[in-house]
Amino acid sequence: MSVSDQPLILGIETSCDETGVGLVRGTTLLANAVASSVDEHVRFGGVVPEVASRAHLEAIVPTLRRALDEAGVGLADVDAVAVTAGPGLAGALMVGVSAGKALAVALDKPLYGVNHLVGHVAAEQLENGPLTEPVVALLVSGGHTEILLVEDIATSATLLGQTLDDAAGEAFDKVARLIGLKYPGGPNIQRAAADGDPAAIRFPRGLTSQRDLERHRYDFSFSGLKTAVARWVETAERAGEAVPVADVAAGFQEAVADVLTRKAVLACQERGVSTMVLAGGVAANARLRDLTRERCAAAGIELRQPRFSLCTDNGAMIAALGAAVVERGLPPSSLDFASDSSLPVTQVLVG
Ligand code: KG4
Ligand code: ZN
């Protein structure tokens, strides 16, 4: 089937602080319009749900227009609408789900409420073509940190592990604040770390002791790491020494990258999976990318990673998952489905 014969899927994403509208045919990306409210959260040092919801309301229609323009299509050309049903911020999700329902009704087209986390994995198909399942996905962003086993992108995903406390991006943001760097912390820590020695300070790797590995094999914990950085900074300040920001940033970044990649590679090996997908905003981190590439290569695992604009929250990833679901001929969601802020990853498509 040629690309133009494949159904045109509109995807809507509003689970956190990015309003995303994407257009996709099959695994071909036609448009990916995103409006971020990140600047509005800077002074609070993190995403404020009420602020995010209001920003989605303001951005949804202009972002939809931009996506249609970018793809050179009209609303009448859309064959199906996919929208993030969860997980995410309740009020934020509601904006996208309401918009998706309104469009589906107005256009008389089917609506698919889909899982945000699986959407991150589906985005990879827009970059490098159809995935050969099973794949292990390492999802790392400001809101989530998970290792997923995706047996079938349209129907079946399992949560192998997740963070027990802070998300990886959240840890970057909090540690940045501790050492006087601005929000969002990730890019600023990476910049500072470039001048530092990653081996100068060895920060703890959470849940990697033999005992922890038994109970929390693929889980993460970053709160101990954050506390260790806080203590280290406090001690230096109390001694009247200048905090070596570059070394602290490099040591912290190394600890995060080490534990993330170690556990994701372990999951591939133990589950006999030979493809890993790395996605989420923290996947922009150069050290994390390098270490993942290195360790995957050493273990004979193929690493797949979409470009940055497809790694962070966006509507095209939701359209891509919608396209996979439509291609499989799965029944659409009912028009009265509710968004679910804690939608389990096992539910790829809501009923
Ligand atoms: O996926 P994303 O854009 O948004 C949500 O979480 O919804 O991820 C944002 C997170 C922030 O916590 C930010 O600090 C982190 O990704 N981030 C990075 C880098 N760029 C963004 N973390 C580490 N290194 C980076 N270069
Ligand atoms: Zn996300």
Automatic annotation (TrEMBL):
**TM spans (from-to):** none
List, alphabetically, the GO terms of the cellular component aspect. cytoplasm
Enumerate the spans annotated as Gcp-like domain: 29-319
Its main subcellular localisation, reduced to a broad class, is: cytoplasm
Does the UniProt entry include the keyword Cytoplasm? yes
UniProt binding sites for substrate: 139-143, 173, 186, 285
Q: What does this protein do?
A: Required for the formation of a threonylcarbamoyl group on adenosine at position 37 (t(6)A37) in tRNAs that read codons beginning with adenine. Is involved in the transfer of the threonylcarbamoyl moiety of threonylcarbamoyl-AMP (TC-AMP) to the N6 group of A37, together with TsaE and TsaB. TsaD likely plays a direct catalytic role in this reaction.
**The protein's name in its UniProt record:** tRNA N6-adenosine threonylcarbamoyltransferase
Give the species this sequence originates from: Jiangella aurantiaca
